[in-house]
Write a structure and sequence with these properties.
Alpha-Beta Plaits, 2 domains, globular, kinase, EC 2.7.1.39, threonine biosynthesis, nucleotide-binding
Length: about 325
């Protein structure tokens, strides 16, 4: 009986200056897993079991779970492609909080598709899998976008192309940077966070957005950390979304006054992130956020790096 276990890391969507087109995977420096896992086992019929610290936050009906939707979609595409299919039992280990801004739904989706693809002998290529992942993510958020699923699947920092192939390109990262993330413990709906945004932006804002993103990509390829950090301001979403995040302005003020290079909202929030160029500053910012930004027992914070690897197979315990 074949068993496959897959892990998909948390991620930062937008990374402040790249609304819907930029994302980065996360890996805590202390080795703490920060992502969802699935275990897939050959079975007589499909079934889903949910476990993990945030399992109780998911709907009780497995038919409504996004992993079930991933399974049915994957099998449909397998049949269309002429591949042999067989039922499996899936266990989702829900380690990421829902509505956290850490790519929680993307992590479940990526772990499911990556695990299924590995379990059935890698029938689909990277770009086809990414298109599947984006389609399922769109069912949750209301629009197809890859700023969480791409870095979650591939690792690193990714820039979305808007094309069918390649769906995304990998960007260099500043190796000296530490990324502090802090989840406050409250939930912010992705669709609600999108609805609060204006339907149109002024010409000056659009020009600033394009200029910042262009400079940022150039700075990463040039290894110019100062230039890259200097344009990490969100002119599209943060002015509106920060009203959904209690304590955001105080947190940003402390981080920047303490030496952080940049501070922003991870995805739709409420998770925030700070970019620091040394671990001492990162740990000081993390400690303050833990004491002042977290609002309940579900909250947490980590000092992270951006890993080069995204989704991966995990060793199956005997």
């Amino acid at each position: 009986m074949k068993t496959t276990r897959a892990y998909a890391p948390a991620s930062i969507g937008n990374v402040s200056l790249g609304f819907d087109v930029l994302g980065a995977a996360l890996q805590p420096v202390d080795g703490t897993p920060l992502g969802d896992e699935v275990e897939i086992v050959d079975a007589e019929q499909y079934q889903l079991t949910v476990a993990g610290p945030f399992a109780h936050k998911l709907p009780s009906d497995p038919d409504t779970n996004i992993v079930t939707h991933c399974y049915h979609y994957f099998i449909e595409e397998m049949v269309k492609a002429g591949h042999t299919v067989s039922p499996v039992a899936v266990t989702l280990f829900k380690n990421l909080p829902i509505g956290s801004g850490l790519g929680s739904s993307a992590s479940s989706i990526v772990a499911a598709f990556y695990g299924l693809n590995e379990h059935f002998g890698q029938p689909f290529c990277e770009d086809v899998l990414l298109l599947m992942m984006g389609e399922l993510e769109g069912q949750i958020s209301g629009s197809v976008h890859y700023d969480n699923v791409a870095p979650c699947y591939l690792g690193g920092m990714t820039l979305m192309t808007g094309q069918a192939a390649p769906v995304t390109v990998s960007l260099p990262v500043i190796q000296d940077w530490y990324w502090v993330i802090c989840y406050s413990g409250i939930s912010v709906s992705t669709s609600a966070a999108r609805n609060i945004l204006p339907k149109e932006v002024p010409m000056a804002t659009a020009l600033t957005f394009g200029r910042q993103l262009g400079i940022f990509v150039h700075a990463l390829h040039s290894g110019d950390a100062k230039m890259a950090a200097g344009v990490m301001q969100d002119v599209i979403a943060e002015p509106y979304r920060k009203s959904l995040l209690p304590g955001f302005d105080d947190a940003r003020d402390f981080a920047m006054q303490s030496g952080a290079l940049a501070f922003g909202i991870s995805g739709s929030g409420p998770t925030v992130f700070a970019v620091c160029n040394d671990r001492h500053t990162a740990e000081a910012v993390e400690q303050w956020l833990t004491e002042n930004y977290i609002q309940n027992e579900d909250g947490f914070s980590h000092v992270c790096r951006i890993p080069s690897q995204g989704a991966c197979q995990q060793q199956v315990e005997e």
